[in-house]
């Protein structure tokens, strides 16, 4: 009985004194181009994520299709092997055909109009709820 109490006390002391190791997660970001606005955005996102996570998340950038062509990187995001890619919307149509509406010609004449429309619920209602569960999110 006495040895069981001592063993329990030793185990409790050991658990209290141990500090948990930082969880390390590597986030892969892919883009089809390099040295352009999207690559500069990726570098800013990397700096922000690594700073705010306190070293728990390591961000790796893969520009210029280093992880494969756009269809392969979109599939990688859907499967969970790549955390983010920057494709044209047409490449996600294979996963969800309703994304075609975002590529429809003549919907608007200015990119500012399309950007302003994106968060409006009426526009968002065109996209399926399953898009978010597959890692496809426009916002």
Q: Would you kindly provide a written description of the structure presented here, covering whatever features stand out?
A:
There is one protein chain. With 139 residues, the chain is mainly α. It folds into 2 domains: 24-87; 91-139, no CATH class. It has helices spanning 2-17, 37-53, 70-79, 111-117, 121-124, 130-133; strands at 25-30, 57-62, 84-85. It has a 3-stranded parallel sheet with strand order 2-1-3, with helices on both faces. The longest helix is centred in the N-terminal third of the chain and has 17 residues, at 37-53. It is globular. The N and C termini lie far apart (61 Å). The model has no long low-confidence stretch (mean pLDDT 76).
Short description:
The chain has six helices and three strands, in the order αβαβαβααα. The protein has 139 residues and is mostly helical.
Mean pLDDT: 76
**Percent of residues in helical segments?**
40-55%
Question: Which percent range describes the beta-strand content?
Answer: 5-15%
Task: Kindly give the count of domains.
Answer: 2
Q: Given the C-alpha coordinates, what overall shape results?
A: globular
Radius of gyration: 22 Å
Query: How many helices does DSSP assign?
Result: 6
Count of beta strands: 3
User: What string, H for helix and E for strand, traces the elements in order?
Assistant: HEHEHEHHH
Structural class: mainly alpha
Q: What kind of sheet is the major sheet?
A: 3 strands, parallel
Low-confidence segments: none
The CA-CA distance between the termini, in Å, is: 61 Å
Kindly report the spatial arrangement of strands forming the biggest sheet.
2-1-3
């Amino acid at each position: 009985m006495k040895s069981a109490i001592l063993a329990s006390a030793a185990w409790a002391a050991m658990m209290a004194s141990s500090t948990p190791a930082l969880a390390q997660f590597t986030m892969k970001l892919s883009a089809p181009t390099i040295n352009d606005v999207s690559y500069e955005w990726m570098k800013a996102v990397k700096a922000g994520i690594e700073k705010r996570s306190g070293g728990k998340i390591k961000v790796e950038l893969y520009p210029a299709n280093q992880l494969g062509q756009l269809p392969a990187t979109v599939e990688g995001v859907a499967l969970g092997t790549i955390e983010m890619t920057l494709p044209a919307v047409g490449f996600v149509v294979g996963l969800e055909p309703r994304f075609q509406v975002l590529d429809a010609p003549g919907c608007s004449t200015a990119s500012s109009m399309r950007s302003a429309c994106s968060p409006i619920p009426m526009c968002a209602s065109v996209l399926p709820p399953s898009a978010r569960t597959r890692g496809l999110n426009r916002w």
